[in-house]
Amino acid sequence: MRVPLPWQARLLARKVGTLVEEAIPRTAPASFEFRGEALSTTLEGETLLVTLHREPCNEIGTTALAELEIVARLLSRPGDRVRAAIFHSSVSRGFCAGADLAELHGGLMSRAGEGASRLRVAAEARDFIDRIHAAFDAIDMAPVTTIGALHGFCFGGGFELALCCDVLVAEKSTRFAFPELRLGLVPGFGGIPRLKRDVGNAVIRDILFTGRSINAKKAQDVGLVSQVVARGRGLEVAKKVAEQAARFDAATTAAAKRFTKPLPREELARERDLFIEMLGSDVVSAALRKFVEDDSVRPYLP
Questions:
Q1: Is the backbone of residue 245 left (phi > 0), alpha (psi -120 to 50) or beta?
Q2: Burial class for 14, CB neighbours closer than 10 Å (0-12, 13-18, 19+)
Q3: pLDDT tens for residues 189-218?
Q4: Contact (CB, 8 A) for 176 and 217
Q5: Selecting from 3.90.226.10, 3.40.50.300, 3.30.565.10, 3.30.70.100, what CATH number does the domain 7-293 have?
Q6: What is the DSSP letter of 147?
Q7: Is the peptide bond between 56 and the residue preceding it cis, with omega within 30 degrees of 0?
């Protein structure tokens, strides 16, 4: 049965447009320099360098979300100082392994233990999902060229963050996957609607229904990645792409981006509804518990 959306969550949804604005501290640096627990930003010339640096593999939870909202704000209003942005990771395991499933499981169990109804838990989860989508949409539609410099794990929510970028440069070690079905879920951060802009349905269904990962070469073959480079050279090449992109008129770049990369708003909204509906199932609870109790070195792998 579909979980209905309570009036509180509807009110939050109407305010999504202001969530990113409200999440940014008034002290957000005009110099574009920021260092948080999950990521940092620095301005190198006309390129905003966004570095994910939280071990073990940049999982996206409440902390990372709050800091991504800062990045979204900076990119939404880049002024004349920022002409491109690069997202990369300084963590050796990869770009991002996805959502912070341990935090998600802990939150769901805690609220259930407090006697919260599934409807209430769904409403609270909706707030988080709406914030994620607001931040990712802002990054996706930023009026500058965004480049993802990827290596290692690019799974789940990390894959969805990468799909917000305009150009992807992948090191040979990069692997892409949507393992959400093993948790009883669909990707919830906008992954499938954004992936549809870049590749065909056959590729999407293979990735989604099998949970298998694809390597950088395969990703380039299907049109997802623009360049595959040697290990350790992703950031270097991404900086060259950013430098080239910054040479063109800013207004022309923004207009071209709006034309070539439209935001699939209706599909994104349907995805949010489906994700919240699935989140309250016993299948998800059991799968999250299994993941959290997994003591293997790399529980991220499907």
A1: alpha
A2: exposed
A3: 999 999 999 999 999 999 999 999 999 999
A4: no
A5: 3.90.226.10
A6: E
A7: yes
CA distance 282 to 33: 43
Question: Is there a contact between 233 and 175 (Cβ–Cβ < 8 Å)?
Answer: no
13, 19 in Cβ contact below 8 A?
no
Cα separation, 236 vs 86, whole angstroms: 11
Alpha carbon 294 to its chain centroid, in Å, reads: 24
Distance CA 144, CA 71 (A): 13
pLDDT score recorded for residue 7? 31
Enumerate residues 6+ apart whose C-beta is below 8 A from 123: 5, 6, 8, 9
- Quick check: 121 and 272 in contact, CB under 8 A? no
Q: What is the C-alpha to C-alpha distance for residues 297 and 15, in angstroms, rounded to an integer? A: 40
CB 43 within 8 A of CB 81: yes
In order of 47, 89, 203, 259, the CA distances from 54 in angstroms are 22, 9, 30, 35
Distance between CA 286 and CA 281 in Å, rounded?
Answer: 9
Domain ranges of the chain: 7-293
Give the pTM.
0.87
Q: What is the dihedral of CA 10, 16, 18, 24, to 10 degrees?
A: 120
DSSP 3-state of 208 = helix
Closest to 127 measured CA to CA, from 66, 71, 183: 66
Q: Give per-residue pLDDT as tens, 47-60.
A: 999 999 999 999 99
Tokens 């549809």 locate to 196
User: Is the peptide bond preceding residue 4 cis, with omega within 30 degrees of 0?
Assistant: no
Whether pLDDT at 2 is above 50: no
Instruction: Give the amino acid at 291.
Output: F
